[in-house]
Design goal:
It comes from Geomonas diazotrophica. This protein has seven helices and no strands. By secondary structure, it is mainly α.
């Protein structure tokens, strides 16, 4: 996948940590049991802070579909929450969040859910998986 760096640690299956997180987020989303924000937060939590309770993912429940109003992409909101969960330093968290937003805009032009889904939600699984993978990549270098 395009966000991966060379020399990223790989697990026993040969997939990098970022790929693992991306694949898990995609699976959560495709299952229909989680929307974009929940899927990103859950996958990152499972990889970087597995001891945190699963109920933590409920914090993201209001962020799907652009927080119900169509504004910020839920995958980006979930990634922002995941960064805050894992990174305890406020300045470092803010810097990684800014980097995530810039990356997303470079990839998809906008972070607005309404604009991203103007032609339907078929790309939401892509946004979810790629954002989760990018968050994992950012967290690896913190």
């Amino acid at each position: 996948m395009f966000w991966l760096r060379k020399n990223v640690a790989e697990n026993v299956n040969g997939e990098s940590q970022a790929e693992k997180v991306a694949n898990e987020a995609e699976g959560f989303y495709r299952s229909g049991k989680m929307h974009c924000a929940e899927a990103v937060l859950a996958a990152v939590k499972n990889e970087f802070l597995p001891e945190a309770g699963d109920e933590l993912v409920h914090l993201a429940s209001g962020f799907g579909g652009g927080s119900g109003a169509g504004c910020i992409c839920g995958a980006v909101a979930g990634g922002t929450m995941a960064i805050g969960l894992v990174v305890k330093d406020r300045k470092a968290s803010a810097a990684l969040t800014k980097e995530l937003h810039h990356w997303f805009k470079e990839q998809y032009r906008v972070t607005c859910c309404k604009a991203l889904t103007a032609n339907g939600k078929k790309r939401c699984v892509e946004f979810t998986a790629n954002t989760a993978g990018k968050v994992a990549e950012l967290l690896q270098k913190k």
